[in-house]
Write a structure and sequence with these properties.
The protein is mainly α. Helices cover 43% and strands 10% of the residues. It has a three-stranded mixed beta sheet.
Length: 172
């Protein structure tokens, strides 16, 4: 049989009305391989072989979500891309208040809202509120060491939220 005329022998012409003989498994495999090679040639790769990385860097850009990267590095990149670094740092400060300001101060104070460089600190007594007001300069310096220079510009101190009614503490 010739390659040009399936189902015929070399030199013989196909008779009109004769159906071509079904292809064998090996012929189908050869055709599939030839098609795969042709497709690979279009893509400039060879089937069954891995692509070699270029010596100029990695094959994938991790910032585009193409390859694996460390979780911490991915989170930092996300925070940076979205402009959330300062918010995340301030949120971390709220969770780690005791380490930043010390155990004694943390027992009597808690961070409140943070907006436009102003941190609201709530105190559990008027005496501690006065103490924090006196230490506010040092507190701003310490917070800026943790969060980055210029993040906290002012500390607003609030005392206990209980309002004493007139005559409430009178002895009868």
């Amino acid at each position: 049989m010739s390659k040009d005329e399936p189902g015929t022998r070399s030199g013989e012409a196909a008779a009109p009305g004769d159906a071509p003989a079904p292809k064998t498994g090996i012929e189908l495999a050869r055709e599939a391989l030839a098609q795969a090679r042709a497709d690979a040639a279009k893509r400039q790769s060879v089937p069954g072989q891995r692509r070699r990385r270029r010596s100029g860097g990695s094959a994938r850009d991790p910032r585009r979500g193409g390859g694996p990267q460390l979780f911490g590095a991915g989170i930092k990149q996300l925070l940076s891309d979205r402009g959330w670094e300062q918010r995340a740092a301030v949120g971390g400060l709220f969770g780690d208040w005791e380490r930043v300001v010390g155990r004694d101060l943390a027992e009597h104070t808690s961070p409140g809202a943070f907006e436009d460089g102003e941190l609201v600190v709530s105190c559990d007594s008027p005496a501690w509120a006065q103490q924090v007001r006196l230490l506010s300069g040092q507190l701003v310096r310490r917070l800026n060491e943790e969060l980055g220079e210029g993040t906290v510009r002012r500390v607003k101190v609030t005392g206990p939220q209980q309002v004493r009614k007139p005559g409430q503490w009178r002895v009868r």
